[in-house]
Amino acid sequence: MEVKIIRSLRRRRSVSARLVKDLLLINAPLMLSQERLDKIVSDFKLKFSRRKLKTELDKEKNLLDLASALNERYFDNKLKIESIEYVTNQNSRFGCCNYRTAKIRISHKIGLVPKWVRKYVLIHEMAHLIEPNHSRAFWDIVLRYKLTERARGYLMAASIDIKEDTRS
Fold first, then answer.
1. Within 13 Å and on the Cβ side, how many CA atoms surround 105?
2. Class of residue 22 by CB neighbours under 10 A (exposed 0-12, middle 13-18, buried 19+)
3. pLDDT for position 158
4. Under 8 Å CB-to-CB from 81, ≥6 apart: which residues?
5. pLDDT score for 34
6. Which residue ranges form the domains of the chain, and what is each CATH number?
7. Which pLDDT score, from 0 to 100, does residue 166 have?
8. 112: DSSP letter
9. Integer Cα distance of 40 and 15 in angstroms
10. What is the Cβ-side half-sphere exposure of residue 56, based on CA atoms within 13 angstroms?
């Protein structure tokens, strides 16, 4: 991503950024130190690259379509999912489900694994809409997916640097 910095005498404190095609335009105060500006530019690059990744994942690996198919096959269309989306700020879990609001969030890193592993993560989170904990009843639901153990092994072996919630 190419960066163009525009310094201004009129700008006193704030730094703004916008992405135009593949050019990151940064507007900064003239008196801002280069060291501080470098840190801000780095943060903006990360923010915009994550946003771009999320957009690409939402287009190419649509979670709603996959969740609908899994709901039909494994849950007899009984689940009502309010929203399901990739997020780029979830670094400690593969996914999370708020069973009260029926909102599911999936780490962007799961968008990069094979589809059968992504299905496992979705089924795992969708099962929380029925069983909010990791009880035996919960695992009975998840284990209906025949590749559950294989997918769990894949996630462990792939060394994805996020932790799976393994409370039982």
1. 11
2. exposed
3. 77
4. 64, 67, 71, 102, 103, 104, 126, 129
5. 93
6. 2-59 (no CATH), 61-157 (3.30.2010.10)
7. 44
8. G
9. 8
10. 11
Cα–Cα distance for residue pair 157/154, rounded to 1 Å: 5
Q: CA torsion sign, 118 to 124 to 130 to 132?
A: negative
Helix ranges restricted to H, 1-114 = 34-60, 63-75
Q: What is the CB neighbour count within 10 angstroms for residue 64?
A: 13
Three-state secondary structure call for residue 95: strand
Encode pLDDT of 89-99 as tens digits: 887 789 999 99
What are 8's strand-pairing partners?
29
- CB hemisphere CA count around 64 (13 angstroms): 9
Give the span between the Cα atoms of 25 and 155, in whole angstroms: 38
Q: What pTM did the predictor assign?
A: 0.72
pLDDT computed for residue 160 by the predictor: 58
Predicted confidence band at 159 (pLDDT cuts at 50, 70, 90)?
A: low
Residues forming beta bridges with residue 98, ordered by sequence position? 103
**pLDDT 10s digits, 37-88:** 999 999 999 888 888 877 777 777 788 889 999 999 999 999 999 999 888 8
Tell me the two tokens of residue 139: 């695992």
